[in-house]
Here is the input.
Amino acid sequence: MKKKLAIAVSCIVLLTVAVVFAYRAMPAGTVAAEDHEKVSAKAAKSLQDKMDAIKKAEADPGRAPAASRVEVSEVELESYMLYNLKKDIPAQMDSFDVQLEPGTVGAQTQLTFASDATGNPIVDAVVSGTHDLFVKGSLQGSQGRGKFDLLEVRIDGIPVPKVLIQSLFDKYVKPKYPDADLKEPFDLPWGIEDLTLQQGKAIVSY
Here is the structure.
């Protein structure tokens, strides 16, 4: 029972990370990606600058769709999560590793839960401490629409059944991100037309 409860609560946090990652961190918007060798505030700012640029381009009524293209690196995404989105995660994020491959994105993170993380003494007694969380899914975008299909979730190396994931998603993630859906396509934000995942990078056309 304790193991199932730990998996359930940890999965809630993991799905929150996945939603934030898929819907906020992926878009970008400059002409070319900078080459960053390590996670840093500079790399996070690079991605933020790209996001600001693509928002600005969307506001130009005379701009042709997909007129520009940009590359986003794994390090930029990792840095953005650790420096810019860390406050959105309901636990201490000790590490965040992005793995971009053709058609798929993976996120490996280590989270530390405080002894009073949930406010429920029973749950807190089970989940407090550090947990390794992994999520992987296919992500694609074309003609202004995106689709994310969840492929795998592991908590401390233990696979989490998709039925449990959907149930937890509906109960805990959906209220916070009402437009998020594990099964349905979604509109790519900020006028992005196409999104392609390759080895170590994402290519965005806007």
Observations:
- Helices lie at 2-25, 41-58, 74-83, 121-127, 162-173.
- The CA atoms of residues 139 and 152 lie 13 Å apart.
- The first strand starts at residue 69 and ends at 73.
